[in-house]
Amino acid sequence: MFRNWLCIALFVMAAALPATAPAAAAGGNITVSIDEKPVTFDVAPQVINGRTMVPYRVVAERLGARVSWNAAERSVTVTDGDTSLRLTVGQAEAISNGRNIRLDVPPVLVNGRVLVPLRFLGAGLGWRVNWETATRTVQLRSIPALTVRVVVPDGVPALSIVRLLRERPSMGRNVTINYEVLRSPELMAARVVAGEADIAIIPTNLAAVLYNRNVPYRLVAANVWGMLHVVSSENIRSWQDLRGKEVHTFGRGLTPDIVFRYLLAQNGLHPDRDVTLRYLGSGTELAQAMIAGRVKTAVLPEPAATQVMTRRQDVAAVLDLQQAWATATGLGLSYPQASLLISNAVLNGYPEFVDRFLHEVAQSAAWVNNNPQTAGVWAEELQTGMTARVVEQALPRSNIRFVGAREARGAIEAYLRVLRDFSPEAIGGRLPGEAFYFQR
């Protein structure tokens, strides 16, 4: 479960990147080189709307890929191992390994040759693509072999990438990814600190702690936006109904406790006078106590809250802490509870892989919300510690949403300020600086 993680402190569409020469720089021939060797064309490359377009067959075959042309559909298919790209003349939608990709410039037919965006083609096949202005040369270079270690805690963070865990989509030529789902938060933190994880999903406040300790990772996105709920067998309809009640929670002084105390205060209740707080060791322990009937009202994370409600028909989710947070802060947003970190070595050395991986993570987050039943089956098959039924019912309350660091920064800082004001140690003493946030 995610339990103690609550407690411990795209391929950006290759064609949408600044592609090659800007249209204003048109003039003179364009040279294409693959690993320093020039490519000869019978139809010259062209710059169209700032994108270098090249005959697909010549480049793809030089890169070791197989090509095919469907005359009826006017479509091109390029395959290399488990990578497949499909483009259609005149259409701005391409397909990369079954995913739709929006192109800035669609393929065109020139003198009997289909010209496609070179960056999309090269990066899609796992090559590094660079534009050299001085020589008007596009360089395609092979990327050194890369093995990436991705670690995630079980529970909702694992659900956010369950599609990747199940389908293992290709991330490009020479890239191998090893995924690991961990149930021990202590082991998770140790892996990151020791540099034994290249990519990790961890509590956002722990990411701040690590940054303040100079651990070389950056926050790339927030992808779990809170999963705490007050569940109860009592008649509770509002925050004021908690007055005089005994509420069980877990993680004294840690993030679940801080968030709940903050929201009590924001709703006019003193956490130590108006409500009696009882603490158990973990969310799992608390869930079991509630199933056994020893607890009437509790603060629980998903999927533990759903596990209780499936076993106790008299228990319901009565207060959504995420909605309360959005109202209390005035941001209209929940708090970014868990975030995606990537090591500086990978960010700086393999930008093509990073773009592709982030695209897949974003797609997985969207997919899991639209396919809760299949996500549940996959989660159970992958032995993530959750049953299919619980996952399907818990997903609507799990708030999985991929938001890049640039867009999420305001919400992240608001969350970290609340934690800092309660306990500076919860975020490593101070708000992280500009370099904490990865900017594409």
Q: What is the SS-derived class?
A: alpha+beta
CATH class of the largest domain equals Alpha Beta
> What Rg do the Cα atoms give?
25 Å
Largest sheet: 6 strands, mixed
Kindly report the spatial arrangement of strands forming the biggest sheet.
Answer: 15-14-16-23-17-24
Into which percent range does the helicity of residues fall? 25-40%
- State the shape: elongated
Which fold name fills CATH's third level, the topology of the largest domain? D-Maltodextrin-Binding Protein, domain 2
Number of helices: 15
Topology:
Elements: E1 31-34, E2 37-38, E3 46-48, E4 51-55, H1 56-62, E5 66-70, E6 75-80, E7 83-88, E8 93-96, E9 99-102, E10 108-110, E11 113-117, H2 118-124, E12 127-132, E13 137-142, E14 146-153, H3 156-160, H4 162-167, E15 175-182, H5 185-193, E16 199-203, H6 204-212, E17 217-224, E18 228-232, E19 246-250, H7 255-266, E20 276-280, H8 283-291, E21 297-301, H9 304-311, E22 316-320, H10 321-329, E23 338-343, H11 344-349, H12 351-370, H13 372-381, H14 388-394, E24 400-404, H15 405-422
Parallel strand pairs: 1-13, 14-15, 14-16, 19-20
Antiparallel strand pairs: 1-2, 3-4, 4-11, 5-6, 6-7, 7-8, 8-9, 10-11, 12-13, 16-23, 17-23, 17-24, 18-21, 18-22
Helix pairs in contact: 7-10, 8-9, 9-14, 13-14
